């Protein structure tokens, strides 16, 4: 089950993959980033936006950081300026890494309670499961971005966790 080592590795993987996909996306025009490609959130940009919002809401629930603006239904519309988005993504990835570095082993025990605005009800689930959901959710939607980038002619780098630089290094 997840522990601090798992969270540190996955937080590093999250940052590495975001940097990888953002670098590949930088080569596209704004129109190409915003083009509807038939994915769940439509475009590369809207999918990036949704991941950002979801990461923000989960970090809010885990660590008490600021709650993101908007709701799940608006989560794909956060990006105005691409450069500002990249800065926000980088800051959030650093926050996730810092949280992963600082999290107490006790945090993984017990349940996390939160109210979901998406389904309008309260949840209580084991923290060990919820933290796996965070990283699984990121990977799921980044896979969609990777596919859209490939279709757009971009060449994102490797995605395998096992080839992440310095996989076992401290974050």
Q: What can you tell me about this protein's structure?
A:
The structure is a single chain. With 171 residues, this protein is mainly alpha-helical. It has one domain (4-163): Up-down Bundle (Four Helix Bundle (Hemerythrin (Met), subunit A)), CATH 1.20.120. The chain has helices at residues 4-26, 30-34, 44-63, 82-102, 127-151, and strands at residues 111-116, 121-126. α1 packs antiparallel against α4 (82-102), α3 (44-63) packs parallel to α4 and α3 packs antiparallel against α5 (127-151). The mean pLDDT is 93. Belongs to the DinB family. A divalent metal cation binds at residues 50, 137, 141. Keywords: Metal-binding. This is Damage-inducible protein DinB.
What are the SSEs and their pairings?
Layout: H1 4-26, H2 30-34, H3 44-63, H4 82-102, E1 111-116, E2 121-126, H5 127-151
Antiparallel strand pairs: 1-2
Helix pairs in contact: 1-4, 1-5, 3-4, 3-5
GO molecular function: metal ion binding
Protein name: Damage-inducible protein DinB
Pfam families: DinB
Residue-averaged pLDDT: 93
Q: How many distinct beta strands?
A: 2
Strand order of the largest sheet: 1-2
Share of helix, binned: 40-55%
Net shape: globular
Order of helices and strands: HHHHEEH
Q: Would you kindly provide a brief summary of this structure?
A:
This is Damage-inducible protein DinB. The protein has helices at residues 4-26, 30-34, 44-63, 82-102, 127-151, and strands spanning 111-116, 121-126.
